[in-house]
Amino acid sequence: MKKFIAFAALSSLLFSCGSGDKGELVGVKGKKWHPEKPYGMSLVPGGSYIMGKSDDDLANIGDAPTKTVTVRSFYMDETEITNSEYRQFVEWVKDSTIRVRLAIMADDQGQTGAGGKGGKNASSIGDFAFSDADPEKMTPYDKYMYENYYSIGTEDDMYAGRKINKKVKLITDTAKYPDEFYSEVMDSMYLPIEESYNGLRTIDVNKLKFRYTEVNLNEAVKKKGRKGFIKKSEPVEIYPDTTAWIKDFSYSYNEPMHNDYFWHQAYSDYPVVGVNWKQSKAFCAWRTLYKNSHIKSKKKKGRNLINSFRLPTEAEWEYAARGGLQSGAYPWGGPYTKNDRACFLANFKPNRGDYAADGALYTVEAKSYDPNGYNLYNMAGNVAEWTDSSYDAGAYEFVSTMNPNVPDSKNQRKVLRGGSWKDVAFMLQVSTRDFEYADTARSYIGFRTVQDYMGTQTTGTK
Q1: Do residues 139 and 168 share a domain?
Q2: Which of 82, 164, 227, 355 is least surrounded by CB atoms within 10 angstroms?
Q3: This prediction's pTM
Q4: pLDDT tens, residue by residue, 271-294
């Protein structure tokens, strides 16, 4: 025993001598970190502001009394999430769904030897087998994980954790399908011929689902532990509800918007609509996953993964919308909705229903009109925006003055901010609160995302 203690002490001494720290407490050294500005986002420097109605509450709702609050720094999308950006999410889910189905089919047919070879052109269903189908090609860690976790799956997904093969190109030309098994999988992704319009093959959007994992830290703190509060979401159907253009307006002809708005290239730079709160949360989780997957694939030494993209809290949204102006009614200050050349400053419904007066019948491109002081576009009008906060009419009376929020998962009424193309000017005011139910999609509701700033030294307080 004495020999062991002496050996341990000697080992400790040798380690200390060779570490270069001269026995001093210098901390764990790491690669110098620099904040990275996310693409398409602007930094909103943290600070304090007076949240709530600074003018008369014309609607007499009384749900936004003034309250001084402080929010931390964060990045925010300069524009609402566009159709083009959301289509990237839809295409990723579609690609992944098809590849998983192809891999399962290869498993069922016993064609697992070709998976993960890396060839770009497939010759059979086996080329799309799971990349971990051949244990001989695994690293020791992957082999351990496969044998103890992935090969077992979970209660609701027997293929959970399996690695799909993304190196082989998907074949979309029906004349080039490699075999009947590939044909069967691809056919299952489309609507039956009798449900197709004019004989066009139409993807079955109900099959495009996304699941993600989230931690309810508020509940975890109450229970003094994280166990049981790391939860997978229910599968979320992520395709926008394009029928919202019809359902939202009875006795109205909006079929062209239903048919073309989301998928046609002409509307790529317009804000996505028909997305409910749950779908917008799924988008945030995917965007985080997508970026971190890229970082991990590059294997850059010392490169940290990014923190999560998310929806803004109600307080963050209002602070960002004000653009550094205190007590302004609108992002540009106000109190008017026109500039000195009599041009409207936002896309809304002026003049008692004259939709065209501001130059647009429906939405406008996400980068329209002038940005506010934080370089954020359309923080008033165009589309109303989801926030991460649950709506409570009396929330301002009890929320904290530091990063206030109401994260009530049981309350399905979620706060909307900013007003939209179909709203009157009152709804465009930065302090006006509105809500919609989490599972409801509208033709006038979109969203934008935020990401926490890593550090505390940046503030907007002079």
Answers
A1: yes
A2: 227
A3: 0.90
A4: 999 999 999 999 999 999 999 988
CA–CA separation, 433 and 154 (whole Å): 42
Burial of residue 412, with CB atoms counted within 10 A of its CB: 0-12 exposed, 13-18 middle, 19 or more buried: middle
Residues 6 or more apart in contact with residue 390 via CB below 8 angstroms: 406, 407, 408, 409, 411, 412, 413, 414, 415
Distance CA 236, CA 209 (A): 5
Q: Give the closest residue to 402 by CA, choosing from 63, 59, 49, 163.
A: 49
Query: Distance (Å, rounded) from C-alpha 271 to C-alpha 444?
Result: 9
- What are the pLDDT digits (tens) for 290-345? 999 888 887 665 568 889 999 999 999 999 999 999 889 999 998 899 988 889 99
Three-state DSSP at 83 gives helix
- Does 343 map to a domain? yes
Same domain, 104 and 57: no
374, amino acid identity: Y
Residue 434 shares a structural domain with residue 324? yes
Residue 118 corresponds to which amino acid?
Answer: G
Count of the separate structural domains present in the chain: 2
Domain boundary among 187, 203, 219: 203
DSSP states of 239-296 as a string? Answer: S--TTHHHHTSTT---HHHHHHTTTSGGGTTSBP-S--HHHHHHHHHHHHHHHHHHHH
Contact assessment for residue 61 and residue 434, using Cβ atoms and an 8 Å cutoff? no
Phi and psi at 260, nearest 5°, equal -120, -25
User: Would you say residue 288 lies in a domain?
Assistant: yes
Backbone angles phi, psi at 361, to 5 degrees: -85, -40
Q: Find the Cα–Cα–Cα–Cα dihedral 449, 454, 457, 460, rounded to 10°.
A: 0
CA distance 130 to 109: 13
- Contacts of residue 18, defined as CB under 8 A and 6 or more positions apart, other chains included, come to none
